[in-house]
Q: What sequence folds into this?
């Protein structure tokens, strides 16, 4: 029954990568806590770089400096 | 003052259906806990089927099998 | 597969009332969007009144004024 | 290490305004709790007015009445 | 910079198991999306079984039937 | 109508500090986006240091090293 929410910036994660995140997070709950994978829900949120901040500035600004 | 967040897959819910979810969730808090509807907030997130997983696989894959 | 999160202040909701919220929210998704209740998850968070604010002040302060 | 999530309706907030929210929320955690800004994360969600409800009705309906 | 939130029922997960969830979720983001582990945040919420519902009933009720 | 969720580790924030976070976050939304403070909701979650991870390890472990 676990619920996992993964938030990442929207920077080109492919459907295959997102499927891997879902598979991996589900397996993690099975391995560590013996949870039932059939009722484990994983939701991925992809967030615009303008809408994500670290250190008081947006990821958009950070990426420009990199 | 309650806050309700409803996450569903993005598969064509209409504005009317979403308005019904908002109305119904607000009424539920009034009926069960006598909450003030005027300060009850409901937020609906519609999530791409590639970004939602159950049983370790995406809803996109599940829908193809159905 | 929907996921519903209900946040309320911790002010004495009983197990019966919380069971009613879970039943009602699940039924709402069935009625409005024909979702499968068996994979509908509802999580209730009860938040201390010191940790919830509206209008820039805590619910603790608001309750004292009422 | 704090994590701040700000949910607003999608009604034209500019990148500059969102950068200000990120800067201001980060500074708030520094000022009040002496948190390290470099590990403070702020995520802004912009929600369609059809998907946000108060008082049992959508913001879309409320805006039309205003 | 990813943020992962894992919600599980409060049913005796040990500090070691929770540390494993944190380690595993962080590594998953490194492996799949090459994210920087030093800015990857994982938050685990443990939810009372009275406050978690599936299929319209609480986990407390489900556990009694098992 | 904005909704702000602030997650911090549970390490002794006082009611006064939490009231300041609520006041400050509400004022931020007023200043930047001209939002109505009376319908701005702020919820603070205090998370055990065993349940919060950065860099793949818990805050409990990090604090012991500091």
A:
């Amino acid at each position: 029954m676990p619920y996992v929410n993964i938030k990442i910036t929207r920077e080109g994660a492919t459907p295959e990568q997102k499927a891997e995140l879902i598979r991996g997070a589900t397996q993690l709950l099975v391995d560590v806590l013996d949870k039932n994978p059939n009722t484990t829900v994983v939701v991925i949120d992809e967030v615009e770089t303008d809408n994500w901040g670290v250190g008081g500035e947006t990821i958009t600004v950070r990426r420009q400096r990199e």
Observations:
- Helices of chain D lie at 15-33, 59-65.
- The longest strand of chain D covers residues 3-9.
